[in-house]
Structures are given as C-alpha cells and as structure tokens.
C-alpha cells in the first residue's frame, strides 16, 4: 500500500517561497505521476501541477509562473516550490499519486496546512 | 481550461434515500478521464469512481457513476450514515494539454 507524507514549514511570510516535500513509502516512485493539490479552508480542490519521474512537468496555468516541482528518485521524494506567496496561498496542501493512464488520484497524503502570514 | 460545474451545491437527504449528483463540463471530456471523490471533514479526498463508471478498490456498489461528453452523474443508491460528505468530480483533458480541474463540490447533508 502506497503511503504519502507531506513535510515542510507550516508558516511562510508573504513574498517568500513555500517549499514542501512529499515522501513516498510502500512502493516505488516510478510508474506514476506525482501531483500537488491544495484546498483553502472551506473551499474546493485546486490542482497545482504534476511531475513524472523523468522530471517532466505540467503546471496549472494560473500558477505556472510561480511553481517549480522536482523529484528525487533516490529518496522516493518529490517537492513543490511556490514563490512570491500571498495570503491567498494559505491552504492545506496535499500530495497525491496520479495514475499515469487515466489521471485519477488514488493515493493521497494526509495534507499539511500552510499559512502565509507575517 | 475546462470548467466543471457541480450541482446542486448542497443536497439534503435522509439515510436510505437516493442521491443524484451532477457534474457538467464546459467542453467535452473523455469518459476515461472523469473521476469522483468523497471528502469528509479533516480528511484527504478518497477516490470513488474513475473512468466515469469504474468503482475504485473497496468502494461499495451503492456508488455508481455514469455519463459522457459534458454531463456526468454520481449516484448513491441508498445513503448510509457514512456517506454524508462532500463530493468532487475531476477531469483530465487537452485544454490545455495535460490540464486537470476539479468541480466545486456537492455537499450531501443529513436532512
């Protein structure tokens, strides 16, 4: 059973860069796409982007200019950086595995709350 | 970008009743790329349906998905107490290439 765990600072200052890492256990990081999804309190889900183990990426056009994703297969980890954050980026951030053929999310991390505040 | 509109926003029903949730897309979506999730407070979403109509592992058969093109439906045949939650549809498509969006969600609450 694949398990995912997000880690990173829970508080980020405005204009700084949000950095999160997702550690994958119980399975290989290969053969899946790996995505980040966020959810502001009381609101819906927003896909941020995905990375494949080759390093290829796709980002949400609305966030593309501020997002960078990377993958470290040796550590079974992938990461998210979101630059120039504002209060609007305050949300629970989830990492998830995305089926490479049908593009649904079958495994999710528990989510981590990131608050943007000075 | 393909926009998914879910309706109704809130559905008030009693246990044992049938729930019908709608997901309408602004452009045609391949049925292969339409999924449904359930989310309870404080929890990550859980995959229910993928490929518009295939149940994920361990999902009870009271959950079913249908639809094609721009109109998709999630049906819960008889609501159990644990089914009261928020439900999201999700699509993957070509506009833009590799793009992916979620609907705004439907809350199924106890009447």
- Helix and strand content put the structural class of chain B at mainly beta
Quickly count the helices of chain B.
0
- Nearest-integer average pLDDT of chain B: 96
Helix content of chain B: under 10%
Radius of gyration of chain B: 13 Å
Alpha-carbon distance between the two ends of chain A: 39 Å
Anisotropy-based shape of chain A: globular
Q: What does the main sheet of chain B amount to?
A: 7 strands, mixed
Query: Helix coverage percent of residues of chain A?
Result: under 10%
How would you describe what is shown here?
Chain A contains no helices and eleven strands. Chain A has 118 residues and is mainly beta. The radius of gyration of chain A is 13 Å and the shape is globular. The N and C termini of chain A lie far apart (39 Å). Classes of the chains: A mainly beta (118), B mainly beta (111).
Secondary structure topology:
The complex is a heterodimer of chains A (118) and B (111).
Chain A: E1 3-7, E2 11-12, E3 18-25, E4 33-39, E5 46-52, E6 57-59, E7 67-72, E8 77-82, E9 91-98, E10 105-108, E11 112-116
Chain B: E1 4-7, E2 10-13, E3 19-29, E4 34-39, E5 46-50, E6 54-55, E7 63-76, E8 86-94, E9 97-102, E10 106-110
Parallel strand pairs in B: 2-10
Antiparallel strand pairs in B: 1-3, 3-7, 4-5, 4-8, 5-6, 8-9, 8-10
Question: What are the key terms here?
Answer:
heterodimer, A: 118 residues, mainly beta, seven-stranded mixed β-sheet, four-stranded antiparallel β-sheet, 0% helix, 52% strand, globular, B: 111 residues, three-stranded antiparallel β-sheet
């Amino acid at each position: 059973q694949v398990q995912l765990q997000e880690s990173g600072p829970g508080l980020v200052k405005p204009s700084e860069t949000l950095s999160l890492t997702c550690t994958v256990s119980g399975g290989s990081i290969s053969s899946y796409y790996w995505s980040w999804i966020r959810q502001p309190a009381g609101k819906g889900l927003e896909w941020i982007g995905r990375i494949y183990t080759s390093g290829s990426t796709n980002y949400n056009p609305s966030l593309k200019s501020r997002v960078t994703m990377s993958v470290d297969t040796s550590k079974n980890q992938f990461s998210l950086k979101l630059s120039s954050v504002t209060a609007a980026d305050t949300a629970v951030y989830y990492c998830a595995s995305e089926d490479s053929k049908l593009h649904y999310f079958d495994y999710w991390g528990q989510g981590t709350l990131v608050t943007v505040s000075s | 970008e393909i926009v998914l509109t879910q309706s109704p926003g809130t559905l008030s029903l009693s246990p044992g009743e049938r729930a019908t949730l709608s997901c309408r897309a602004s452009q045609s979506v391949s049925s292969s790329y339409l999924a449904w999730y359930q989310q309870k407070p404080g929890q990550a979403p859980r995959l229910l349906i993928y490929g518009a109509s295939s149940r994920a592992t361990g999902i009870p058969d009271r959950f079913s998905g249908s639809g094609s093109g721009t109109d998709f439906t999630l049906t819960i045949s008889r609501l159990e107490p644990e089914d009261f939650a928020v439900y999201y549809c999700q699509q993957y498509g070509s506009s833009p290439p590799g793009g992916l969006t979620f609907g705004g969600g439907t809350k199924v609450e106890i009447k």
